[in-house]
Amino acid sequence: MAWYWILLIVLGSLVGLYLLGFLFFITNGDGHMIEKIYNMLLKYHDKHKREEKI
After folding, report:
1. Which residues 6+ apart lie within 8 Å of 29 measured at CB?
2. Stretch 11-28: mean pLDDT, rounded?
3. pTM above 0.85, yes or no
């Protein structure tokens, strides 16, 4: 494989990751993901019994 193919694959991957991250940031995808994780954790912890000691 020629060196320019390797360079093209690496640069294409970096540009693709940058565009994916930019799209994720612009659409507020990170906030939506955090909200879903928070809701899943909330449901998980609400199922468990807790002892309330003062």
Report:
1. 23
2. 90
3. no
